[in-house]
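Appendix C reproduces, verbatim, an entry submitted by the partner laboratory led by Prof. M.T., so that reviewers can inspect both the input and the predicted structure.
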Amino acid sequence: MKKIGVVYHSGYGHTTNQAKGIVSGIEGVENVTANLIVIDQDGNITESDWQELDASDAIIFGSPTYMGMASWQFKKFADATSKRWFNQDWKDKLAAGFTNSASINGDKHSTLHYFMTLAMQHSMLWVGTGLMPSNTKAARRDDINYLGSFGGLMAQSPSDAGADESPTDGDIETAKAFGVRVATTVRDLLR
């Protein structure tokens, strides 16, 4: 059984909805399990959470994009991985990332690139979305990968939307497809 740790911070609940969509996709793949690990509002996770990440075959990083970057709570978590970096404890694990912001663009690529850099420093192997964009005239906001991201999962939640109404159904379906992508990659690549 392969294990995927989904470690994330969510400021208003929108990123939590993304994370749950990812886990829903992972759980649909045979012989793969997922563990949600929430970075709290002080930027911390528990010791048992650290052990779960260490035992995972893949780690998916998640954070809202605030001011063009991951939240400070996620950054605190990332900085706390330095001992694992020094020992290369996560070397050859698979890695992926997801983010959400209020604007369609919202500089989300800065956050995804930060996650990629963190993964590369840990000598991890990055998994992108593997999804074609919905970029035709017939495309609608609720289509899969409407935001057209390849490097990682993106979602958009209006700044005045509650967690019960955002991200869109299309962004949640994209999250599920992303979860399937990471899970099947872990299952098929790490035998």
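Residues 2-189 form a domain with the Rossmann fold fold (CATH 3.40.50.360). Additional entries are available on request from the coordinating office.
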